[in-house]
Amino acid sequence: MIAHQAVLIAIGINWEGKRQVLAVEMVNRESQISWKEFLLRLKERGLLGVEFVVSDDHAGLKKAICAVLTEAAWQRCYVHFLRNALDYLPRKADDDCLQELRWIYDRRDIQEAQQDLAAWIGKWQGKYPKLVDWVEGNISETLTFYRLPRAHHKHLKSTNMLERLNEEIKRRTLVVRIFPNTESCLRLIRALCVETHETWLEDNRYLNMTFLAEQKKEALRLAA
Question: What are phi and psi of 8, to 5 degrees?
Answer without folding.
Answer: -100, 125
